[in-house]
């Protein structure tokens, strides 16, 4: 040990003191933080590329067990990948087509019922607990009319069209990337890990396998929870006679992929529709059902379905959601929790910490 120390280059006395060593460590921390911040900044500059890659990676992790099951049952890998890929595209396409068809089919009925609903809302605002005056309601109405009569609406429309174009382009890119991840995921991973030192490759492969298990389990568990929330809202809306029950339930399902607040935020649209179309009493009942579904999700469904794959404290989830939303908006909120889970899994694997996540290597990929 002493001989090894003698071989070290001499350290200037100013850095050998306690304060000097603390300064060196602080500089190292600042450099690492600068690297992380720079990487995050660069990643958020190309969302049209990075977002499809991350979404495709999460979807591929969730679909991989189905591909593995088919290949173990003597399906050619290319055929298994194509079958799973077509099924996923069919599900997404069917959901979008169904929503559009339902909204178009009920648009005339909604236009008629909206007039009566607005009258009910006006009566509730003036005679209810808020006790607003006609002058106050008129001021709000004038502000809305001012918004529609100025150029703000046109600018928003142009921005919305550009956003739709970006979403379509990102969806197509995501589909292409997903296909290649399913088909050549193992080859791509081995190529990337080939740049690592040989002594670190086994750990990197193990971290990748565990991360895949975490991502797949998270997505499947979240999908099941979101489907249960959507089914509860759908039944409540159908029983109460709220229009657009199925599209609103689909929105709740989509919102369920944002932990903690997603389903509740999406369900607020159902409350609003019920308020306009059916009155305040029905809207209150929908709100109670929504809160009940939220409590069921947090206290029963999440621990039951994702307790074995998502070992993250609730405070960490909230901080990750806030950070993701600030950095990348809605997409950041969607991806924050799975990326945080993967980061923790990689850290735990690389540092040798115990983890309950196990993922056998895909025999069909060897």
Count, helices: 13
**Considering DSSP H and I runs of 4 or more, what fraction of the residues is helical?**
over 70%
* Biggest sheet character: none
Class of secondary structure makeup: mainly alpha
How much beta, percentage-wise?
under 5%
What would the principal axes of the Cα set say about the shape?
globular
Straight-line distance between termini: 43 Å
How many domain modules? Answer: 1
| DSSP summary, beta strand count | 0
Summarize the structure in words.
The chain is an all-alpha fold and 366 residues long. It has one domain (46-357). The chain has helices at residues 2-6, 13-16, 18-45, 47-72, 77-105, 107-127, 134-149, 151-193, 198-240, 245-255, 262-278, 280-306, 314-350. Helix 9 (198-240) runs parallel beside helix 11. The longest helix is centred in the middle third of the chain and has 43 residues, at 151-193. Residues 1-5, 151-157 and 357-366 have low confidence and may be disordered.
Keywords:
single chain, about 375 residues, mainly alpha, 13 helices, about 0% strand, disordered N terminus
SSE topology sketch:
Elements: H1 2-6, H2 13-16, H3 18-45, H4 47-72, H5 77-105, H6 107-127, H7 134-149, H8 151-193, H9 198-240, H10 245-255, H11 262-278, H12 280-306, H13 314-350
Compact overview of the structure:
This protein has 13 helices and no strands. It has 366 residues and is mostly helical.
